[in-house]
Amino acid sequence: MSGIGARLVALLARVSFKQLLLVAVAAVILASGLFGGLERAETTEIEALKVGRAVDTGPFDLTVERGRHTTEIESSAFPSAPPARSVVVVATVRNRSDRSVSAATLRDSVRLSGVAGLLDDGRRAKKGADVRPQVLLPADGSALSTVVPGVTYEVAFVWDQAVDSEPPSSVGVEIRSHTRRKSTIDGQQGWFDPTAVRRGSVAVEEVS
Prior knowledge:
Layout: H1 3-14, H2 17-34, E1 47-48, E2 55-56, E3 60-70, E4 84-95, E5 101-102, H3 103-107, E6 110-113, E7 119-120, E8 123-124, E9 134-136, E10 146-147, E11 152-162, E12 170-182, E13 189-206
Parallel strand pairs: 1-13, 3-13
Antiparallel strand pairs: 2-3, 3-4, 4-11, 5-10, 6-12, 7-8, 9-11, 12-13
C-alpha cells in the first residue's frame, strides 16, 4: 500500500461514522454550489382557472369571461403579415394597487396554449405559448396603454392566428401573477417576476 493509502486508512480508522456522514453531506452541498445547485421539484400546485372567477395577480384582479375567434379585427400591426384571424380572450380587469400600471404588465399576465399557427410580429411563432397578446378595449377597439386604479375595464386579449390553421374550439389559458419590487437594473419599483398561478381551458366560439 502506498504511503498516501496507508495514511488514508489510518485517518478513517480514527473518524467516527457520524463525522464521515457530516463530511459527505458537506461535500454534496459544496458540489451543489459549484455546479448550479440541486434540482428542485416543483411543489407549488397551480390551481385550475375558472371562467367568471377573479384571480389576484398582484397588480390586478383578472376575471376571464369568454373566448372568441373572428376575422373581423384588424389586429396585426404588420402590413406584410399573412391573413389572420383573431383569437380573443375577453376578461374584466381591475387595478388593485394605488397607482397606474402599464398595460405591458397586463400583457404579461395572460398566455395562450393549444392553438396552432399563432403569429408573432407578423410571422409564425416557433412557440405559441411565448406570444404576447395585444390588449384592446372592445368598446372602441383601441389599445389599452395604462390601467388606472379604481376602474374596472372590459378588455380583449388578442392573438393573431394564420387563417390556414384550424380555428380553436377551446384554448388553454394561463394567468400569471407579478411581484412588486425594485428593479435590479435601475432600482425603480415595478411589477416583475411573472409566475403562473392559474391554468385552465376556455371554450371559444366564432363571432362573425
